[in-house]
Write a structure and sequence with these properties.
- The protein contains eleven helices and 17 strands.
- The protein has a five-stranded antiparallel sheet.
- β11 and β12 form a beta hairpin.
- α1 crosses α5, α1 packs antiparallel against α10 and α8 runs antiparallel to α10.
- It starts with a strand and ends in an 8-residue tail after the last helix.
- The model has no long low-confidence stretch (mean pLDDT about 95).
- It binds flavin mononucleotide.
- Flavin mononucleotide binds next to α10.
Length: about 400
């Protein structure tokens, strides 16, 4: 079974991640991970931080001569910006702490206030350094290792943006292969497949920038190639839909997840919603629609898995909202610092990584083994219909 941990502050020396349970014999290089890290750093509306950080994950353990060993894989990503923060983020006490201004004006919508009370921090910096989504760089790196694993079995995870600040794109993904979705997403500044809507989305981001405001949006994560029966109906914590939804909501600023038609399923008659089964000579049966989004009874049903994930607008706002200075108890504008205006395209890539990480355990539960050789054998001997 897979376990992972990340550590590191946003402006600390580095981010570290440990992935435990990856089977032995998977070919893995730092370049495999770099591809996804680069994708996470792109997107119109990101802050200048992305120009400073050119994320590279170094593999520190768990790989020898290009193949995983079955032992824990340790990754490290250096924070290039740390050189500018050595005093503010010093591990050892400073001789004169009064030189560092304490942050005491919490941002509505961020972890600042609840975090300061929970951990009894007088300086909100102690909260925001870890609450920051900089941590998602390591999730993307760990997810890239899982992508390499699933790729061996022909399982792919891609994503695309379908809404920015209320500007909804045509969802063209249904008519495209996952390779086409990936290529078109990678070549778009907003990871959007619909060029006309992309222009309107950019205009909306420009409007937010001009107003010193922020925007959220909606993206879709697509999983293709997962065999039937990953996940289970027998217990709630084994349901694939629940596992994937938790993974999406574990990402900073994600507020809703829909599977297939999601919330819209509630508006239809059962006979309109459910995907009919038709006989098919090659695959025994086929579904003409995929409203279920690839999951029935908490298990993959062999169709494309589709997750629609909603991200709220970011809470660091250039024109700060009303807040209270915790030191004085007086009304005061919330703190503001360098921040993204819109991070939905980056969040897409984080969503892919979380889907990849979350699928590992249900997949290994069904086909697991200590080595890639063993997993291949389990997949090959997996039975189909019991009547065949
Ligand atoms: C890829 C990504 C980038 C983000 N960048 C910012 C940012 O620059 N400024 C900001 O205020 N929030 C940013 N966020 C969102 C905050 O991290 C998040 O709102 C905060 O941790 C509070 O968590 P919550 O929104 O889930 O309540 C980002 C989130 C993601 C996924």
């Amino acid at each position: 079974m897979i376990k992972y941990l990340t550590a590191g502050e946003s402006h600390g020396k580095c981010l570290t991640g440990i992935l435990e349970g990856m089977p032995a014999g998977l070919a893995l290089s730092e370049e495999d991970i770099a591809i996804d890290l680069r994708r996470r750093q792109q997107g119109y509306g990101r802050s200048d931080r992305m120009k400073i950080e050119q994320d590279i994950a170094h593999i520190l353990s768990g790989v020898r001569h290009g193949k995983t060993l079955g032992s824990p894989i340790t990754l490290q990503i250096e924070n290039k910006d740390w050189v500018n923060w050595q005093d503010k983020m010093s591990i050892t006490p400073l001789t004169d702490e009064s030189r560092i201004e304490k942050l005491t004006r919490p941002r509505p919508g961020h972890a600042d206030l609840a975090g300061a009370i929970k951990y009894q921090h007088e300086d909100i910096r102690n909260v925001i350094e870890r609450a920051s989504a900089r941590e998602t760089a390591m999730r993307v790196a760990l997810g890239a290792v899982c992508r390499k694993f699933f790729g061996v079995f022909g399982i792919q995870v891609v994503s695309h943006v379908i809404n920015i600040g209320g500007v909804e794109a045509k969802n063209l993904a249904a008519d495209l292969s996952v390779d086409e979705i990936s290529a078109r997403g990678n070549s778009s500044g907003l990871r959007c497949l619909d060029c006309d809507s992309e222009v309107a989305m950019i205009a909306k981001i420009d409007q937010a920038m001009a107003n010193k405001d922020t925007l959220g949006g909606i993206f879709e994560v697509i999983i293709e190639g997962l065999p039937v029966g990953v996940g289970s109906y027998v217990h709630g914590d084994r349901r694939l839909d629940g596992i994937l939804a938790q993974a999406m909501l574990s990402i900073h600023a994600m507020k809703a997840v829909g599977i297939g038609l999601g919330e819209n399923s509630a508006h239809l008659f059962g006979s309109e919603l459910h995907d009919r089964l038709l006989p098919n000579h090659e695959t025994t049966m086929k579904r003409p629609t995929n409203n279920a989004g690839g999951i029935e009874g908490g298990m993959s049903n062999g169709e494309r898995i589709r997750l629609r994930v909603a991200m709220k607008p970011l809470s660091t706002i250039g024109k700060p909202m009303d807040s209270v200075d915790l030191k004085t108890g007086k009304s005061s504008p919330a703190l503001s610092e360098r921040s993204d205006v819109c991070a939905v395209p980056a969040a897409c890539v984080v969503g892919e990584a979380m889907a990849l990480l979350a699928m590992m355990n249900p997949f290994l539960e069904k086909y697991g083994g200590d080595s890639m050789v063993e997993i291949h054998a389990h997949l090959k001997s997996s039975p189909g219909l019991p009547w065949a």
